[in-house]
Structure formats: structure tokens, C-alpha cells
Amino acid sequence: DTLNAKAAVYAVGEYLEMTGLDIPLFVSGTLVDQSGRTLSGQTGEAFYASIRHSKPMCVGLNCALGATHMVPFVERLSKAAECFVHVYSNAGLPNAMGGYDESPSDMAAGNEVFFKNGWVNMVGGCCGSTPPHIKAIRECASKYQPHKLKDVGRPKMWLSGLEDLIVDDVHNHLGMPFLNVGERCNIAGSIRFKKLMMKGDYATAMDIAKKQVEDGAHVIDINVDDGMLDGMAAMQKFVKIAVTEPEIAKVPFMLDASKFDIVMAGLKWCQGKPIVNSISLKVGEELFKEQATLLRKHGAAIVVMAFDEDGQAASESEKVRICKRSYDMLVNEVRFPPEDIVFDPNVLTIGTGMEEHADYGVAFINATKTIRELCPFAKISGGISNLSFGFRGVTKIRESIHSVFLHHAILESGMDVGIVNAHEMLAYNEVDTDIREVCEKLVMNLDPEATEEMLELTKKEKAAIEARKKGDTGPKVVQKSWRKEVPKKRLEHALINGISQYVEEDVEEARLECARPLEVIEGPLMDGMNVVGDLFGSGKMFLPQVIKSARVMKKAVAYLLPFMDKEKRENMIAKGLDPDDVDEDDDSNFAGKVLMATVKGDVHDIGKNIVAVVLGCNNYKVYDIGVMCSCEKILEKAKEYNVDVIGLSGLITPSLDEMVTVAKELSKAGFKQPLLIGGATTSKMHTAVKIAPNFFNAEHPVIHVLDASRSVTVVSSLLNQNKTDYVNDLEEEYDEMREDYYAGLEDRNFLTFEEAKKEKKAIDFDAVPPAPVPNKLGITVIDSVKLADVVPYIDWNPFFQTWELRGRYPNRGYPKIFDDKHVGSEAKKLFDDAQDMLKEIVANKSMWLKGVVGLFPANASEDGEDVDVFESEGDREAGKIAAKFCMLRQQAEKESDDPFLSQADFIAPKGYTDHIGFFAVSCFGCDALVQKYEAENDDYSKIMAQALADRFVEAFAEYLHREIRLDLWGYAKDECLDEADLLKIKYDGIRPAPGYPSQPDHTEKATMWDIVKVQESAGIELSESLSMMPAASVSALVFAHPDSEYFAVGQVGKDQVVSYAERKKMDLEKCERWLSPILNYDRD
């Protein structure tokens, strides 16, 4: 990130100064996605502003994006930079298989916009580019003129946080006449901030900083000066935390301290261009110049106090003299950029009653004007709160004094910067007339009685404050206005807002007003649900809200059902018909009928449940036939219910092959309904390439549905009478994807299996020996861990993904998602509901954890492709293998010299004492809770319980892996990591799950279940597709060697699959079926 770049350019500068060399400096940055920001969150312009002081010959962008995606960012950087500009784009974006598809001519064409517009001087290629690509780009570039250096114009102060901030005359006229520096993160400016710093409560202190930015501060002042505080440690910690908070770090910092080493402690952690407050001549000329030189090399702007060896300047003439002396020294001797100098001529307290203080305001205002004339491009600042210190405790009076003072200092004298409380800034015309008149006299020293007049106003204001306090009787209880509406309106409101508290009484009132119970459903209930559907479809309502609305709807319908059944029976009897001979499936009032199923062998259904609820909320009748549904059951129920759409869901990779089977059988049986594919393991590419060709249906396609939010649009489009264009567009898109996929296979090169084996990761087990012998070999049942034990290990990010709540940069992850303007409020409500249910589950013990760990001697097999596991050390010596774990190796060609990895590489060969671990864990009890909530028509709580069960078991896995490292195995007994570090995988070793990228074969789970006795020990079963039951389960292999790493096997060739099948003693066709998603060839 930029902090590293700043350290690098500082080091280069020091080296060049030391050696006397003059070598051009090029600086290149990477914008990681279409937000146009670096990995640490800076815009391109902010990145340039942060390193601009190093005077690079060339600055530019490289990697992460293809040329077409870099266009707006290169254009902006080209317009901003005062030096030459370069760009090295990728050959497009990575495709589904991890490669790059742009040909040399494509890449050259994408880069041409940079040349045509004269934005760059130097161009090249990054990921995916080859010599032919560079040749094509060179030929294209040769037709155009390079970027011309622009006239930089008047010097300007260019600060940066995550975003840049330019302060010059032009920008001032555009609406920034004054730079507000927020003062509330200053111990001298905020008692609350001081208390938080003394307690070490940095999290709450961050809230103060955020509030300052929200209230309009352009820069945040940070001051931790206090005799009882370790200033260096406090400054460093505050800045380190603040730079990770985008809402704070987006603005530049002012690092404020009386000790220079405290300033430097903060400066070295600040990735942007900050202001340092302050230095002065009171330390003497030599130290003053030394400090200024160091700050210049670090790229900071500086505040210079009007203070010299004789003391602080109070009079106008002294302020001017000291500032002019400092300016000449800085500009002429230190070579400090004049635009980065901010003078503080000392705002001193007025209204004290002492005659010599009366002119302090006027002295500052007049001195400001003169200093600006004598010191070109320098800025003027001041700590405004000092001015009214004598009136502390009376906010209205202090704000008024500040407003009048700033009116004169800014508009008449050109003051640029002020350290203020941004929240309490008062505009000049907002000051009460009577108070403003007295403020004018006081600030401009127009009347010797002004202080007395101000004291009188202060007394009145204090009296008013006390009166307001006495008259404050506390908050009044106000009846909710919507409860005063008629029943139909109340029901609509309850549905839209997900309020189930009054649903039965409101439904009953509405029923009594209607001729038939069905009218309540067709009227206010459907009216409300239609609004919900529209809001969700337009992105103005979020999934948790929709699920809550569904809960209200279901409870309302459940209340009405007995009345509707009674009415139906009475009508049948009146017609002389048998009331027990009733067609239960009256679907005439629905928009369509949808069958939903999780395919055979897969037990995961939370995503399917969410889609079912969303479709139900949009007036589709959903037949959810559950999990582990065989192909025969799906066909049978689709026919029985005469559905309009069939939806298949799955989480594990074997489900992909099962979906292909279902598609084939549906096609054979002549089903013409559209087939929807969804689930975590599915993708649009797999759907287009593997499933769609097996579903021969001219009328309806197979379509991949990314998430619940897309399901309604897809289904309504497919069931629309004018669907032809939509279907044709889908078919055309999938045809193109298939062509691209197979063309990509032809273009992508693979090593033979033998070649890949020769390029394996060769760990030196002599230099870095295997981990020590585990403290507890064999099988250990884990049944004493409580839910409360694992709560601190919960990673909440997947929880919000389950509910399809996605924050936007810079508030993507937990807990920053709560600050997102789009989803933050709903995310916080959802999280609070989750905490309530979590506490209830923990208290009632309605879910519980159980697991098993196995630690065994192990060695890589003789050929280095598998791992031989032994039950004891004696068995190892005797060569008695208890289990063989077969591994897969990468074969796709790499552009670098990286090895071709297999998990077998991480285990030492025969002759070394190495070991391997396994564990399987589960969260039990969720199924019973789900059944309870289903009986209560509470989809929201049902899905919440499933989501929490997933979080509990994942946290249990993290907790148990830590226990393995520290105790059961004990290879990292000195590890000292907090929960956040654990989630960032900062420990030694890995815990890959069988069936996932590092070993994408689920059949190895069966091997683990056998040697560790998982079902017998922990009660976790495997389905026929090797999905774990209960669904909230996690299993993993444990590798301890520090050189072990996570990776993806990717696609493999038939030569490896043949070898793999032989080593597993498995029929080749069966093996290919299990490995179907990763084959680089078509097994059909």
C-alpha cells in the first residue's frame, strides 16, 4: 500500500543524498477493482498526493485490471499528475479458469485510448501479457504523441487521506474558503476524548473522530499530550487504528504534539499526506531546520507557531516578525515547499477583563493579512477555541464569538485553516443580532465595556439553560400514528415493515369488515406484499426485511385458514356436495407454481429456503420438497403439482453432477418447464457448459440464478407471455459462454502429470523439520465445548452474505457494514436480532456442539502423491498403513516459476517422524428449532437459526484448530493470537476441507470417517453424495508444517485422473464422475 511506497521513497531519497547520485524515481500503484482504489482504500489521486513530495519522474498504474477497466482512472491520474505517466494493464480480467483471454490485438486496442488522448508516456503489460502483446501495444503506440507535461500553475497544498484534498485559491473560490480542522480528538479540546485516552478506550475515541468528519471537518486534529499518558504509544496506536477506519481515514490527519518524537511516531503510520502541528523557533534555528528537513522528506505539511527563542508572539508586529523569519529559513535554507507551510500566529483569549488582552483578536486578524502578503503561498491557521476560553460552559456564546472572529479573519484577512469543533460551527448570519453586536465590539476591540456586556449576555444564557433543564419532564410516550389507521392500512403497514405484533387483531378486524376471509388476503395482504416485492426488486428493501414481511403474511394467512375452510365446507354442503371431497391445491390466485429441491446427497437448504420465501412474497406458490431429493422424487412431484418452474439447489460439488443427471432425466421425460440452478457451488459457467446442453427444451432454458434477489425477476420473465426475446437472449449468452469455455481449454496449456510431479513443492524437511510428536495421538472426542466458548471466534461476514446484505466500499465487511449508507441500518437490525436469538440459544442450550479429532503418524507415499497414515508409531515402523489419503496435483501451466502443488507435498517422506490431523465438528439441535419455527409460520426465525448454526460450527472449527495447535498436538504452544488474527489465518499450518479446492474429491471424506470413526464418535453422518449431516458441520485435514499453504488444484488432465483412480482402486468412470467439475476434458 501507499505507506510502504512512502517508506520506499524516503529510503531512496536518503540513499541518493548519501551517495550524491541523481537517479530518476518511478512510482507505480495498483487500483484493485472498479471502485478505483488501492488495496488500502486510496483513490489514484490520493495515492499521487501521498508520494508527490518525492518528485517522481513518472507515476502510473499497473495490474489488477484490464486496459478498458482502467480508462477512467488513468485519465484522472493523467490530469492530476505533474510528472510523466505510465500504465501497465493486464490482458483483460481473469476468466473463470484463472487465465487471461485478451489476444495481443485485443490488448493493444484496449490500450489505444491512452495514446489517442495523450494520457501516458510509457506503456507496458502486466498479468496475462506476453512478448507478442507488448509488440502489438508498441506498434499501436507508435502512431501517437506521448503525454505532455502540464503547466502546474500556482503552488498548491495537496493533502490526502484515502481521498485527496487540494487547498489553493482556485479551490477556495469553488466553495472551500476555510479548512475546518476538527478539534475533538485533541486532549486539550475535549474532556471526553481525554477520558477515553486515559482509559485506553480507542474504539469509542474512533466514534468521536467519525462524528467530526460527518459534521464537516476537512482534516482531523489528533493530539494526545498529557503528562499521565505515554504520548508516543498513544499517538502510534490511535493513528494505526484510525487508518483502518475508512470513514475517518478518508480525510487527512493533523498530527498535533508538543514533542517532536510523538509527531514522528504518528507520521510513520500515516499513509496519506498529513499536516504536522507544530514546530517553531523556540528550539533554536539548528534544531528547527533539522526537524523541518525531516518532515519535508516524509512529505508532511507543517504548522509553524509564532514562537521563537524569546517566547510567544502576542502583538501584531511580533507575530509578523517571527513568521517572516521562519518562512525565509524554511523556503531558502530547508527548501520546504511554501504551499505546505501553515503559520499559527497564536489565537489568544479575549474578554478576560484585562486591558492588555483586549486587542488580541484584532492583532491576529491584522497580522494574518500582513503575513499572507510577506509569505507567498503560505497558509494561516489558529486554534479558535482559545479565543473564547473565558466563557467556557456557555456554548451559544462561544460559538457566536468564534463566528464573528472567523468572519473577519477569513473574509478580510484571508485566514485559511482553523482548528474548530465542526459540529458547533455557526454561520455569521445565524448569530442572534443582539449577541452579534456585542461580539463585534469584543472581537474588534471597539468598546472597552464589551466584556461586561458579554458577561451579562452569558448570565442570561446560563439562566435560560437552567430553566430548560427544570422544564424537561422527560420523553413523552407517543402512540404510533399507524395504529390509528383503519385495519386494512394497518395490515399493509405491518407487512411492509415486518411487524407481527398486532397481526391477529388487525386481521380479525379486517375479516369482520370483508364479505369473505379471502378478500383480506386478496386485498390488504396482497397489496402490502406487492409493495414489498416492488421495493425488494428495486433495491430499496433488503432480504431480512422481506423475510420478516413473509412472517407477517404467513401468520395472517394461518389465522384466516380456519375461517376459509369453514366457508368452503358450508358452500359445498349448500351445493349438495361432499365437503370432504375438496381440491386442496387451489392455485388460481397465484402468479405461478415453483418446485424447489436440494438434490440427492446434499443436505444444505438455507439458500433454497430464502429463495422460496422471496418467491412466496411475490405471489408464487412454492412447493419445497426438501433436501436429498432423488431424481425420481423431483420428476414425480413436478408432475403431481403441475408446476410452472423447477428449481434445483446444492452446496457441495457432487451436487453439480447430480444436477446434470436431473436435467437429462427431465429432458427424457418431456418436461418443458424452465429449470433454475442455484446454490453456493454452482456457477453460470458450469450451468452453461455442463447442465444446459443436457436439457433439450426449445421453449424454456436452463438458467443460473445468482441469489434470491434475482429469482423473482427471472421467474416472472420466464412465465411472461412475451418471453421469447428474454429466452433467446439467455440462449445466446450461454452459447457464447460455452464457445469461450472450450476455446479457453484449447488455449490453456497443461503439464503432463509426470511433468507436474517433477515441479512439485520441494520442502527441505532437514532445514525446517516436521512438527513435534502430538501430545495426544489417536482419537479424541470433543463434547465439552459450550456455545459460549466459541462465540468470540464467530466470523460475521458470511452471516451477512447469507442474508444478501452487501456493504459498498469502504464498508464491505463486519463491523463496517453498519456504517454503509445503503444497507447499514438494516444490517444493524439484523445483527441485533441475531444477538437476541444467539443469547436465547446459548441460555436454553437448544443447540450444542460435538466433534472428534484424530492425530496420527503419517508420511508421504513413495511416489510423493499420497499420504500414508498409521495408527501408531509401531505400525509406521512395520509399514502397516491404516489409511491412504490420495491427493491431487495442479497441472495448469503457470506464468511464474511457482511449484505445482499437492497436499502430499506438506507431509515429510518416509524416514521422517511426521504426523497429520483430522477433525469433524457439528452443531446439533438446529433441525428441532427449524421445525418449531416452521410450525409457527416464522420463516425469519427459521432462517436465522440455520444461519447461526452455520456460524457456531465454523467458530467451533476455528476454536478447535487453535486447541489442536496449542494443546492436542501442541506444535504452536507459544502462539499468542487474538480472534481477529485467527480469522486472518496468521498461524502456522492449514486446515483444508476435503472436497474443496486443495483436494476437490469428496470421497476422501469417507476415508477420514473410517480412520477417525467420525459417525461413531461424534454422530456426524455422510449422505450418499458425502454431504455431512447435520448440515451445520465442518471437517478438515490438519497440516502443521509452516510451509503448508492453501491453494486450488484447478483443472486436471486424464493422465492424472487415471493414476488417481488406480491409486484409489476406484473404477475410472466412477472416479471421473466424482471429479467431473475439475476435469480439463469432456468425459462424455
Per-chain topology:
Blueprint: H1 2-19, E1 26-29, H2 44-51, E2 58-66, H3 67-80, E3 84-90, H4 104-116, E4 122-125, H5 131-141, E5 157-160, E6 164-167, H6 169-173, E7 179-182, H7 191-199, H8 202-214, E8 219-223, H9 231-242, H10 246-249, E9 253-256, H11 260-267, E10 275-279, H12 285-297, E11 301-305, E12 307-308, E13 311-312, H13 316-333, E14 341-344, H14 360-374, E15 379-380, H15 395-411, E16 417-420, H16 433-443, H17 450-470, H18 487-497, H19 503-513, H20 517-537, H21 543-574, E17 592-598, H22 606-617, E18 620-624, H23 631-641, E19 645-649, H24 654-668, E20 675-678, H25 684-691, E21 702-704, H26 708-718, H27 724-747, H28 753-758, E22 778-782, H29 787-790, H30 797-802, H31 824-844, E23 848-860, E24 866-869, H32 873-878, E25 883-886, E26 914-924, H33 926-935, H34 939-968, H35 979-983, H36 1003-1012, H37 1014-1018, E27 1021-1022, E28 1028-1029, E29 1033-1038, H38 1054-1064, H39 1068-1074
Helix pairs in contact: 3-4, 4-5, 7-8, 9-11, 13-14, 15-16, 16-17, 18-19, 18-20, 18-21, 19-21, 20-21, 21-22, 22-26, 22-34, 25-27, 33-34
Family: Belongs to the vitamin-B12 dependent methionine synthase family.
Domain B12-binding N-terminal: 478-572
Binding site for Zn(2+): 63, 126-127
